[in-house]
Amino acid sequence: MLLVNQVKVEISDNIEDFKPLLSKLLRVSIEDVLDYRIERRSVDARKKDMIFFVYTLSVKVKGEKRILSKNIPNVSKQVFKHSDVDYTKLNYAKDKKVAVIGFGPAGMFSALKFAQAGVNVTVFERGEEVDKRIKTIEEFSTSQILNTESNIQFGEGGAGTFSDGKLTNRKKDPLGKWLFSELVKAGAPEEILYVHNPHIGTDRLVEVVKNIRKEIIELGSTIKFNSKVSNILPHKKGLNITIGEDVEYFDYVILAIGHSSRDTIEMLYNNKCNIVQKPFAVGFRIEHKQEMINKAQFGPNHNHPKLGSAEYKLTHQTKDGKGVYTFCMCPGGLVVPASSEEGMVVTNGMSEYSRDKVNGNSALLITVDEKDFESSHPLAGIKFQRNLERKAFELGGSNYKAPIQTVGDFINNKTTTELGSVLPSYSIGYNFSNLRNVFTEKINDAFIEAFEKMGNKLKGFNSDDALLTGVESRSSSPVRIVRDKESFESLSTKGLYPVGEGAGYAGGIVSAAIDGIRVTHKILDLIKVN
User: Fold this and answer.
1) Considering only CA atoms, which of 133, 108, 131, 130 is closest in space to residue 121?
2) What are the angstrom distances between the C-alpha of 387 and each of 96, 438, 439, 446?
3) 259, 343, 284, 260: which is closest to 472 by C-alpha?
4) Among candidates 167, 169, 178, which has minimal Cα distance to 83?
């Protein structure tokens, strides 16, 4: 197979078959092009009046050696990377008990790997199965009564289920290839296998999650919802797990709790688990009209049906050395209520597959660390988060409505009293506020500096009527549960294997899932038998 890079196609061209184009590029007859597959597709919009799709294609062709000898630019031999071990063809000890705590991306794909290998596991998820979870989230938006165990953070699929289903591209990694193929098998759109910045969409992700759950159960494993783990203690050579009044022993425990299970982190810390603080990022959700974003990114082609809703990714290093950046951009999406503790307001972003809502939003974040926490305590970052979320709750009216402010008013340090063209999408409601009251002067100054610089990169980003909704505080974990670099086992708690975002080793659906898979392979290596 050959790999052909930088195949540019104007968006106005309707190419249903690449063979004629490939025959021209490879200087062979159409008959010699036997087959091809799209490996990657991205958009080149550097020239707004001439936008291209840029493809990478793998091609099966006659006379491969002869073609390579021509040294044609952007044509090379395709190199395949394969996982060294097929874990589905090995035998494993039947007397070892394995638990997975948490059923977000890391826990879900860990459980799937175990199940496909023939190792039955027990999954404990504190929240509800996804259909019930949807109803609970909808009830929170209408009643303002928070379910602290099942919400946008907790429940089947984890926090990623109610985002955009954004997938960072890790398909060069054999584990990433397996992950993407499993997602497609479970119902994700096939285009995630090749598009740049692929996404599934919350509406489709719900079905994907349910299908993966069904496969795990059909293969013999058990998934227990509404099953919060309240204690984990060493026992014999493994661990005792407490759920309600029940205590159950396991030899190996995958800890995949996500970045918001603060009570579980506190329990582990009190049980002498080795936990350290880590830098993370906090800020707001910023909303613009999606049409404005499309015009800024695509120019006169902003309404072209092939392009869909435009994205952006902006960064700025302040003069004080602070990193300010946009994160988790949701084109044509909504700002959603993501609280998981009473008396606190947290926001997140969400898009459906169609990305067809009026606004686009992203997190606008600034990095924070020990200097901002003013403490070296391992859990100081959690305390810092809670302080911001309480302030947001109070500014919003102490009823889970969100505090909002226009960018112009934030820059001018005054409470917003009226909206411009951008209307808030946060479902519970809003309260006009001055969001400068949430952060320190140093952080506020960094945001103001970033607005100007980012506005130079994306026209309209710092427009006066762009809308800020507070706060975004759960972009990543504020702690790391320290584990051995080789075995991935907790340094302090034998039998405990921290994985994913909550453990501080991932950020996003793909990296969390891959981390869970990688650690699962380590445990399978330990329990395999000849």
Assistant:
1) 108
2) 43, 9, 10, 20
3) 284
4) 178
What are the tokens at 339? 């609280």
Share of the chain above pLDDT 90, in %: 94
Q: Give the count of alpha carbons within 13 A of 198, CB side only.
A: 23
Tell me the one-letter amino acid at 116.
Answer: Q
Residue identified by tokens 């994205």 is 311
CA distance 399 to 394: 8
Residue 216, token pair as written in the block:
């795990």
Q: Exposure pattern of 333-359 as b/e (b: 16+ CB <10 Å)?
A: bbbbbbbbbeebbbbbbbbbbebebeb
Evaluate whether 272 touches 492 at the Cβ level (below 8 Å).
Answer: yes
Residue length, the chain? Answer: 530
Tokens, residue 354? 């169609």
CA nearest 358: which of 418, 428, 292, 415?
A: 292
Tokens for 50? 């001439």
- The Cα 422–Cα 287 span in angstroms is 7
> What is the pTM assigned to this prediction?
0.95
Give the pLDDT confidence of 75-118 residue by residue, as tens digits: 999 887 776 689 999 999 999 999 999 999 999 999 999 999 99
Confidence of residue 72 (pLDDT cuts 50, 70, 90): very high
Residue 466 DSSP code: -
User: Using CA atoms, how far apart are residues 375 and 392, in angstroms rounded to an integer?
Assistant: 22
Half-sphere exposure of 247 (CA within 13 A, CB side): 8
* Residue indicated by tokens 């959690």: 382
User: DSSP class of residue 324?
Assistant: E
Residues 6+ apart with CB under 8 A from 239: 232, 233, 249, 250, 253, 493, 494, 495, 496
- Which token pair is 426? 């946060």
Q: Which two tokens stand for residue 375?
A: 């403490």
Measured between its terminal Cα atoms, the distance across the chain in Å is 36
pLDDT band (50, 70, 90) for residue 156 = very high
- Collapsing DSSP to helix, strand or coil, 338 comes out as coil
* Sign, Cα dihedral of 335, 339, 342, 343: negative
Q: What is the DSSP string of 44-78?
A: E-SSTTS-EEEEEEEEEESSHHHHHHTT-TTEEE-
The domains found in the chain, sorted by start residue, are: 2-77 (3.30.70.2700), 91-276+479-529 (3.50.50.60), 279-472 (no CATH)
